[in-house]
Amino acid sequence: MRMRLLKLGVLMVPALWLGLSTSVLAGGPPVAMLTQVQGDVEVSKDGKEWKKVDRNKFLFAGYQIKTGADGSGKLVNQTTNLTQEIAAGSVVEITETDAKAVSGKLSDAAQDSGNLVSGIGQRFEKAQRYTTVRRSVEKQSTEVKLDTIAEITLSATYPDLVWSGMGSEYAYRLVIDGKNYPVAATDSDMVRFTVPALTPGKHEYRVDVIKGSDSVYEPKKSGAIKWLSKEEEGQIAAGLAQVEKTSPKDNLSKAMFLEDKGLEVSALDLYRKYFEANADDADMYPMLIKAYHDLKLEKLKKDSAVKLQDMLKASGS
């Protein structure tokens, strides 16, 4: 794992790796999503401690759902996209591949007109790899380096580009197709710039690091911005509407959909919004860490991995 080089950079020396084992994190990708929750509905990881649920929730093997006298919900299988209705007064267990009724009634699996994000299992397993934290002693070096995402999709609706902040003494020069855009210094860990409208298609870009009046770092290789046409933006909007139909008010599912389309910054914004509202959802937190990783936001990635450890310790996992 490469660390972002802060200010004058850092030279890594022997480090202590603090990983999160699969016994601590969920053992595999989510099997189903609980949605359209109404009334009294609770979820448990072990069948002993139950928590009330009033929103969409991804469920893993071993989870159980319990509905009260006025409770109901729908399960959407993340592999098959088939749905099942949970009746009131039921207990349902999530298995390795689907769901089964322990008591009460679970309907037969049926097709649904909604649209799920594809490849959720592979995405989740990849995300878990980025939960490892490397703590190390950092020693100053004279090297300055800034990594940016190699290719990203932007549009009139989703125009923001981000990269790692390198300290308040550094400004930046964003270069798109040879045109310069100055970006002021900031002490934030993430620099955000709203890209002016571009023509549909591919555009070369790079981010130079500026100190005073001098350029102290220019990448050897440019990245690529894909700017969407109005028609392509319409397709994104239609896809989000389908996700909303299957997963009402679910920013997590919308984030994964946008991520699939290469809209990494907008996906990150929704991941952050989701976990601000659902701070206890440790099982899905690796998705936020992956979003930071994909955007080369190494400081935020590391901080989030440490936060995940704290969340798991606090929950006794």
Low-confidence stretches: 1-24
Helix percent band: 10-25%
The coarse overall form would be: elongated
CATH fold annotation of the domain at 144-227: Immunoglobulin-like
CATH class wording of the domain at 144-227: Mainly Beta
Corresponding CATH superfamily of the domain at 144-227: Immunoglobulins
Order of helices and strands: EEEEEEEEEEHEEEEEEEEEHHHHH
Would you give an account of this structure?
The protein has 317 residues and is of the alpha+beta class. The chain has a domain of 84 residues: Immunoglobulins (Immunoglobulin-like, Sandwich), CATH 2.60.40.10. 24% of the residues lie in helices and 32% in strands. Strands 12, 14, 15, 17, 18 and 19 form a six-stranded mixed β-sheet that branches. A hairpin with a 2-residue loop joins strand 17 and strand 18. The two termini are 25 Å apart.
Give descriptors for this structure.
317 residues, Immunoglobulin-like, six-stranded mixed sheet, five-stranded antiparallel sheet, 19 strands, disordered N terminus
